Amino acid sequence: MFALRDDDYIFRMMGVDNGSSNLGMVILDLDLRSGIYHLLEAETFVAEKMISNHRGSVQTHGGRWARQCTLKDIMADRLGWWQPDAVPVESPFFQPRRVQSFEVLTEMKVILREAVEEYNHAMDIILVSPGEAKRAVQPKNFTMKKVVIKDCVLRLPNLRWSEKINIDDLSEHEYDAIAVGIAYGERIRKDCGFVR
After folding, report:
1. pLDDT of residue 98
2. Does 147 or 155 have the greater pLDDT score?
3. Which of 48, 61, 111, 114 is in Cβ range 3.0-4.6 Å of 65 for a Cys bridge?
4. Where are the domains of the chain?
5. Cα 149 to chain centroid, rounded
6. What is the rounded CA–CA span in Å between residue 11 and residue 40?
7. Average pLDDT over residues 114-141
8. Which residues pair with 38 in a beta bridge?
9. What's the CATH fold of domain 10-190?
10. How wide is the angle at C-alpha 55 spanned by C-alphas 49 and 56, nearest 5°?
11. pTM for the full model?
């Protein structure tokens, strides 16, 4: 029999707030035993500001395609750098007044899946519904109909962050990505028997 080291209990996730123009990404290390999350990185990628490598695609395939390719490239880069164990992504949700938004988010799900598959052929994205993400970070007695994710995240007793991160100044996309990561982390802890 072999002894497990402390780092054997660390599960690294890249939480993603799916978007075709603004994409939120965080890196969370979860200690499976204690349930402590450590936020290592938080970024919001604005495709319009990063599109230079795909300017030619705007003329041939349109701006949306160029933005999606730009975000795929940056995700591929971050996946290689951080080497997460899992990539939970907020799932597309349908709103009757914003039908095109659902279409774009579904396309981005495919783009993100391609980036993850290039990083690791045996890996796939894990979808987390917006409702599951909200429930993961809100207090049990939370009664507001519209959950303010930032306020809930800032009150989490089991979230730590690196010195370089100013937790109060993250974008709404980064707060959503944290909630997505924590929702999946709680699923993993339950599946592993650390939570009943």
Report:
1. 54
2. 155
3. 61
4. 10-190
5. 14
6. 13
7. 89
8. 29, 160
9. Nucleotidyltransferase; domain 5 (3.30.420)
10. 170
11. 0.87
